[in-house]
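User: I'm preparing a small set of examples for a lab meeting where we compare how different chains pack in three dimensions. I only have the primary sequence for this one, and I'd like the structure in token form so I can line it up with the others. Please keep the answer compact; I'll paste it straight into my notes.
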Amino acid sequence: MITLIRDAAILTLDVADTFIPRGHVLIRDGVMAAVAAGDHVGPETPDTIIDGTDRMVASGLVNAHMHSQSSTMAGFGDRLSHPAFMWLTQAHTSRRTRDEIRLAVLLAAWGMITSGTTAAIDHFPGQRFTAADIDAVLSAWEETGLRAALAMRFFDGAFADIFPDAPLPDDLKARMAAVEILKPQGVDELRDLMGDTIARWHGRAGRLSVFPAPSNPDRCTDAALRLCAELAEKHDTGIHTHLLETRKQARLAAEQYGETAVRHLETLGVLSSRWSCAHSIWLDDADIDLMAERGVVAVLNPESNARLGTGLARAPEMLRRGVTLALGTDGASANDNMVLHEAMRAVATSHRAAEPDRTRWISARDALHMATRGGAAALRCPGLGALVPGAPADLVLYRRDTPWWTPLNDPVAQLVFAETGGAVDTVMIAGRIVLDRGRVTTFDTDALVREVRAMAAFLKRRNADLFAVATEIAGVVP
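Assistant: Understood. Below is the structure token output for the 478-residue chain.
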């Protein structure tokens, strides 16, 4: 299958940062065969020709941390503390059926595809899971056409960071036990479940990956963290986790380990370039240097952190010290949408008022690299993030006949600071068109809207006992 995009402006993001005012991209069997100025003059006869007039072609963005299970929760819970947010999220996302899991994935995918994201790491679910749950979410990602890594989110310890310091009332603890909210999953069960899932799904269709994924290191035993390293090494996968999102998590890690969470992973001998760590806020200088030395990817979530008030990651320092940085939206419950353009703008601007030396600011180009090449590193997918021959054909066509692209001044700065995702016209993943002039081609979005609305209403009734418990806990946590 050969596709030709012609007469387009091309933002290559290659090593020379080449911008082509008018050129073409030739795609053969899902891979870019040629990216060049002017007209295509080769011997191939394209099966499909895409007119790029008044369009700019750029790499698809990589959302390196999101939660499909919370895609139904946009606009949820303003001015909640992080612990209250976490408990209430449980009520919204627990006990999903296979079809409900699928609908949540499709809703997240819809938001990403239509705003220029072509790949994602899905940290799923938020509770104990079964093989059926994991098969449901992976089948749904396969249906969407996106490039996705399922990060199997588990915990075999307590969520100590979201409990109040004072003991909960006995009657509330009894009701929590009755609904089995946040019940840990044993490491022996996890070994079989995660190992089998990785063996069956990792690498399927050339687009799907499966990672072991601690919910947070301090919610897991050392045995579980070693299991992650063992599985990742055996199957050549990544490892994905939340890391030091809150000040309390940093304090608990120091109390539990006698050292920081990052240094504890190093002490265990598991810290490596396989790890991508969402949030990574409460790091000290030694943590940052160790992450750089080991090749760990820090996945920044600036909008989620600002919305929940959990802190501001030390992104400029991490960048200067050599840490690979990626970007995520986090879940819609914490960030309300899947628009990675907003995350790029936020990471580039959130530190500027406190830094008088403008040479130390994160630039638009830095932010774009986080959302492309940095995300590719977290996804462990070499070649993503640049429009060059031999790279996977994951790309986006933006309309340039829109207010924020008129006139074309600086394609990188406008992509980061001006674009909202609203000018996305066509999206291609592995050479397949998944968005055609604004229309999703891989699933029915009209039916999705109807089904998600019905699902949300039914789930609130079905999980009434969970909502009651979570609401009461949210009232007593700080």
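A couple of notes for your slides: The CA atoms of residues 170 and 303 lie 37 Å apart. The longest helix spans residues 445-462.

User: Perfect, thanks.
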